């Protein structure tokens, strides 16, 4: 596919922390409406890659292009306004605020009118199945519901690209299928997504393409069935099991 039709084009990004290379010359692309899974053992560089794409950390080298325009040197709020939203592995709801107020924080990215922000927040809560908890305090939510809240907050910014860090991480087993269905549905509605996920059956099941990282490098990029059988990917995970 020609580069101009790509939603996200990551070109050779490198991030060093002292002597440690957390991301080494990483390149990959995300097309419109695509769901790309990012896998790799702990410490492979997945979250760092999200930090570089969303501006939370500056890349030492390389470029990040959104619809052909460089966002490489922009701040997180600037990148968010350009349509890149993110959820975090560690959930950080404002526990003193209600669920809908939490989501309005996302909606205020696009509007300054409180009534409009509330309407858009309610729509986002409806999409993630949390509308009935809108007036509850965020602190009473279960982990699965907090994941939905984070998703709603991200959706309320009306993103062109959504980055999800560990959708099912820390969620109790029984809540996982519904969360996975939700991500599938968002994708089915046309959302473009990059998803980091430890649960292999989940990520293999929802992704159109998988980018596998190990020690900060891309070791495979392709359809789930191909990447899952790639000897370097298998070895990276066996290595982790061995260490564990
Ligand atoms: P993953 O998300 O795949 O578990 P990370 O991107 O969190 O991997 O980490 C990649 C490597 O970079 C790890 O060795 C980690 O310890 C290191 N790292 C990540 N963030 C920082 C930081 N802020 N300062 C120093 N080292 C970091």
Task: Give a description of the structure.
By secondary structure, the protein is an alpha/beta fold. The chain folds into two domains: 1-82 and 159-244, P-loop containing nucleotide triphosphate hydrolases (Rossmann fold), CATH 3.40.50; 84-158, no CATH class. It is 37% helix and 25% strand. It has nine helices and ten strands. It has helices at residues 46-54, 76-81, 99-107, 114-127, 143-155, 176-188, 200-206, 224-229, 231-243; strands spanning 6-17, 20-31, 35-39, 61-66, 69-70, 84-86, 161-165, 193-196, 209-214, 217-222. It has a six-stranded mixed β-sheet with strand order 6-7-8-3-9-10, sandwiched between helices. Helix 3 (99-107) packs across helix 4 (114-127). The radius of gyration is 18 Å and the shape is globular. The termini are far apart. The relative contact order is 0.17. The mean pLDDT is 92. The structure holds adenosine-5'-diphosphate (ADP). Residues 17, 20, 22, 40, 42-48 line the site of adenosine-5'-diphosphate.
């Amino acid at each position: 596919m020609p580069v101009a039709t790509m939603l996200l084009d990551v070109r050779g990004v490198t991030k060093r922390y002292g002597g440690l290379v957390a991301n080494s010359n990483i390149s990959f692309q995300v097309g419109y409406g695509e769901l790309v899974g990012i896998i790799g053992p702990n410490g492979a560089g997945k979250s760092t890659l999200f930090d570089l794409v969303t501006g939370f950390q500056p890349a030492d080298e390389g470029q990040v292009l959104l619809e052909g325009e460089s966002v490489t040197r922009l701040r997180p709020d600037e990148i968010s306004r350009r349509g890149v939203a993110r959820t975090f592995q560690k959930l950080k709801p404002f526990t003193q605020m209600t669920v809908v107020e939490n989501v309005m924080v996302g909606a205020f990215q696009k509007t300054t009118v409180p009534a409009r922000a509330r309407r858009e927040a309610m729509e986002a809560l409806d999409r993630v199945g949390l509308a009935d908890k809108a007036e509850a305090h965020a602190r009473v939510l279960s982990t699965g519901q907090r994941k939905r809240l984070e998703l709603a907050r991200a959706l309320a910014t009306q993103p062109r690209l959504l980055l999800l860090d560990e959708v099912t991480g820390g969620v109790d087993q029984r809540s996982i299928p519904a969360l996975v269905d939700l991500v599938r549905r968002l994708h089915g509605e046309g959302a473009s997504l990059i998803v980091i996920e430890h649960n292999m059956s989940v990520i293999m099941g929802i992704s159109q393409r998988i980018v596998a990282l190990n020690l900060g490098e891309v070791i495979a990029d392709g359809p789930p069935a191909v990447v899952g059988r790639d000897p370097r990917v298998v070895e990276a995970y066996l290595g982790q099991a061995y260490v564990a």
